[in-house]
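Journal club prep, shared notes

We agreed each person brings one worked example of a sequence with its structure written out as tokens. Mine is dTTP/UTP pyrophosphatase. I'm keeping it raw so we can talk through how to read the token line rather than staring at a rendered picture. Sequence first:
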Amino acid sequence: MDKSLVLGSASPRRKSLLELAGFQFGIRTSEADESVVKSKDPETLVQKLAEVKAEQIATTENEVLVTADTVVSFAGNVLGKPENRMEAIETLQLLSGNTHAVHTGVMIRGYNQSKIFSIKTDVEFMELAETDIIRYVDTGDPFDKAGSYGIQTKGALLVKGIRGDYYNVVGLPIAYLVKELEKYDITPS
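Then the structure, token by token:
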């Protein structure tokens, strides 16, 4: 039986990471209502979100599905994608000079088995001047990213350092995922 990988995400970052690892895969997106998933614990939240997305995507018996969700947490609060410019500015002001956590939850489903896990990476921000924040927000980069920044784009200029998996901050802990997919006989080419 030919086995194939399906990415259950419209994220260009997740697509790029799977391509970087050398996978051949299809893409399907979920229409799941993520707003119904609630949890104050970021690890639980991202795992539930990955699971809800997976439930909305049909697969065949020879396909392995990967879904994921990423959130930022700081001072006991989960910070998702900003709704507007002001929210992006406020989030970046909050993160300025501080260390926050980035959590990515991943669900792998296939061959009558599934696995859900989450990975956490700590990110320390530079002390940001108001002009730095405004300049970055005006690029438009923060608006489709948890925590209002993208470490792989101009948001890299905000970051002082990280502890953990860089690619987890981008949106997919690719090294860990590759090892888990081996258990499903899915390997990069």
